[in-house]
Structures are given as structure tokens and as C-alpha cells.
Design brief:
The chain is mainly alpha-helical. Helix content is 51%, strand content 11%. Strands 1-2 form a two-stranded antiparallel ribbon.
Amino acid sequence: MALQFHDSPFHATHDAGTASKMALRMDLSIFITNCIKKLGLKQSEAAVRLDVTQSRISELADGRIERFTLHAMLDMLDRLGFRTSFGMAGTCSDEPRIVITKATD
């Protein structure tokens, strides 16, 4: 049996479209959780700042990404002071990129 390599663990068990979305949600959950830690927020404090319940922060920290939509995670990023943009260099053959930057209000 030949060794198989996948883009993410999700690609081994799901179709490509579903796996890509799950991988993105996992990356965002790690990013948001790391931001909460860097800010030194307790789960209850993070919940207030992100306008969610403490149990939602717990689910996020535990990697329960199936409970979150990308929209909800982008809202959390906004409340943490980040802006998210999607861009391509100019043609459909270019690699699309999602960029998260610190807001400069």
C-alpha cells in the first residue's frame, strides 16, 4: 500500500470542498484562541468581548469547529480588532488569499 499525503487531516476523511472549509475553520479557531491567550483574557472575559457565551469560548478552545460558521468566526475577529479580506492578484489562475490584519480605526 502506497503512502498517501493530504492537505489536511480533514482531506483524508471528507470531500475536498468540505475539508477545505473545515481546515479554514480550524486555522481560524487556533488564531482566535491564541489572540484570547495573548490578551490574557479568561473565557468569561473573552465571551463578553466577543459577545458570545462562555460555553462558546470553551467550544472554540476545545477545537469543536463543527459548531461554528465561518461567518461567526469572522465576527469574532472583528470584535478582537482584526479585519479580514479576500483577494487575488488579478486572474482566476492566481492563488486566492485570505488576509487578516489588525484594524487601524
